[in-house]
Specification:
The strands form five sheets. Strands 11, 15, 16, 17, 19, 20, 21 and 23 form an eight-stranded antiparallel β-sheet that branches. Strands 8, 12, 13, 14, 18, 22 and 24 form a seven-stranded antiparallel β-sheet that branches. The chain folds into two domains: 29-116, Sandwich (Immunoglobulin-like), CATH 2.60.40.4120; 117-362, BT2081, beta-jelly-roll domain (Jelly Rolls), CATH 2.60.120. It is globular, with a radius of gyration of 24 Å. The chain has helices spanning 2-26, 63-68, 145-154, 217-220, 279-283; strands at residues 34-38, 46-51, 56-61, 75-78, 83-87, 97-101, 107-115, 121-122, 127-130, 133-136, 141-142, 169-172, 180-191, 194-200, 202-208, 221-223, 225-227, 231-241, 259-266, 277-278, 292-297, 310-315, 330-337, 352-362. The chain is mainly β.
Length: 363
């Protein structure tokens, strides 16, 4: 009898062990992201964007610090529980990779893209289809498409996230010269329990931070790229067609308007901490921010006549003070949107803005 009970207890313990082992395997995390990437303090100014949607770490700095990058080693931290290894010796080399392995064994490979400055001429010619939507090969420019992809997957009924033509910001061959970017205001839905009746196409210098989507979508749009000279003006070509039907989320008879806006702002404080202006600042009138030194908005953003492109010029000639590049970092913000009130889900479905050949003139 004693032997029988002991065998029964051992059998039960063995079953428990198997169950525990299986359960442990099931709860192993699949998180395999780079959460933090930083460089030593002597590399300054520098801007680092971790673009998880594209498995990229993007580093922007000036010519002097660009030469120093290969002599320093970044601090890289993966997701909790994940491990990271290097494929290659020099992280600045073209074929170098960071491989992040999750607890459950799933891997993700990151490339590092290093750029010396935001180009003065931007023709928006080269695009790739990434994660189902179009991405400009010049990583200085981005859109809210990454957030739209998340929204599409949560809406009922779900939208096709794999078709780039379904997204509000995409490439078009109907440019002033060759390809261009087109933004359209499309029908929205309910996301994270919040009603988003429209989704306005946007396109901007900066970074879209998907980790902020759930807590505050407006904070996900991080405007601006570090520049090393004072911007004088931004010019380019555009055409705009207002959507038909009622204005949504406001006076139904109100006209919609596109938005073309630029600002030059201080991007670090006295302690060297990065300052990031977002769509939340835009909502509260970005030009009133104490960090904005100069700004300009294209006032005539009503519908253009015919199918021809029209020139626009944003003059940054109203600087409140001179930039002190030795003391602070500075960013140039350029943003376009199909509906000016898109950040607060105001506009007309079908409003469409096409932009091409954007040029930045420095002082």
């Amino acid at each position: 009898m004693y032997i029988y009970k002991m065998k029964k207890i051992i059998a039960l313990l063995f079953i428990d062990f198997l169950f525990f082992s299986c359960s442990s395997d099931e709860v192993k995390s699949s998180e395999n992201y780079i959460e933090k990437f930083s460089l030593p303090a002597e590399i300054n100014p520098v801007q680092i964007n971790i673009i998880n949607e594209q498995n990229l770490v993007y580093v922007l700095t000036d010519s002097e610090n660009y030469e120093k990058l290969s002599t320093v080693e970044p601090t890289v931290e993966p997701s909790i529980g994940a491990s990271i290894k290097k494929e290659g010796k020099n992280w600045t080399a073209k074929n170098f990779k960071y491989v992040v392995t999750a607890e459950n064994g799933e891997t993700r490979e990151y490339s590092v893209v290093i750029s010396k400055t935001v180009p003065n001429k931007n023709s928006f010619e080269d695009w790739i289809s990434e994660k189902g939507y179009y991405v400009l090969s010049d990583l200085n420019w981005t859109s809210g498409n990454a957030g739209i992809s998340t929204a599409f997957s949560m809406m009922k009924p779900k939208r096709d996230v794999a078709n780039p033509e379904n997204y509000p910001t995409k490439k078009t061959t109907d440019g002033y010269e060759g390809n261009a970017v087109v933004m359209e205001t499309i029908e929205g839905g309910t996301v994270y329990g919040k009603n988003m009746p429209i989704l306005s196409g946007n396109f901007f210098l900066g970074n879209f931070n998907t980790s902020k989507m759930a807590s505050d979508p407006l904070m996900a749009t991080e405007f601006g790229k570090i520049v090393f000279t004072k911007a004088k003006s931004i010019k380019g070509y555009y055409k705009y067609k207002e959507g038909e039907g009622d204005f949504i989320n406001g006076d139904s008879n109100k006209n919609d308007s596109c938005d073309i806006y630029a600002a030059f702002y201080q991007a670090s404080d006295n302690d060297g901490k990065e300052i990031i202006l977002t769509a939340k600042d835009t909502k509260d009138k970005l030009d009133k921010s104490p960090y904005v030194l100069a700004h300009s908005r294209w006032q005539d953003c009503s519908a253009t006549q015919g199918t021809n492109f029209h020139p626009f010029v944003l003059n940054l000639d109203n600087y409140k003070s001179e930039p002190d590049f030795k003391k602070y970092n500075y960013k140039l913000l350029i943003t376009f949107a199909a509906s000016k009130g898109g950040a607060t889900y105001e506009g007309k479905i079908g409003s469409k803005l096409t932009v091409d050949e954007v040029e930045i003139e420095d002082n």
